[in-house]
Amino acid sequence: MIIIKQILELCSDPIRQMILEFLNSLRDTAAKTDNPFDDLAVHLLFIILGFPY
Q1: C-alpha–C-alpha distance, residues 45 and 53, integer Å
Q2: Among residues 44, 35, 39, which one has the least CA distance to residue 27?
Q3: Fewest Cβ atoms closer than 10 Å to its Cβ: which of 8, 32, 42, 46?
Q4: Which is more confident, 52 or 43?
Q5: What's the pLDDT tens digit per position in 17-27?
Q6: Where are the domains positioned within the chain?
């Protein structure tokens, strides 16, 4: 987990923005499903990658 955060810190801002946009689309998709674990999984991805949810 720490290694992933360090790699993301080395990425340029446009790459970090693209990753954040992808995570936001995942969050929106998970919110539309009936499975609460979909939302939990996306929330954990945000936490692991160090992005604000």
Answers
A1: 9
A2: 39
A3: 32
A4: 43
A5: 998 899 889 99
A6: 2-49
Q: Token pair for residue 50?
A: 């160090």
How far is 32 from 12, CA to CA, in rounded Å?
Answer: 31
The answer to whether residues 47 and 53 touch, using CB atoms and an 8 Å cutoff, is: yes
Length of the chain: 53
32 with 47: CB under 8 angstroms? no
Give the burial class of 8: count Cβ atoms within 10 A of its Cβ; 0-12 exposed, 13-18 middle, 19 or more buried: middle
Residue 20's identity, in one-letter code, is L
- Encoded tokens for 17: 């923005």
> Residue 33 is encoded by which pair of tokens?
């499903």
Helical spans, DSSP H, in the chain = 2-10, 13-32, 36-49
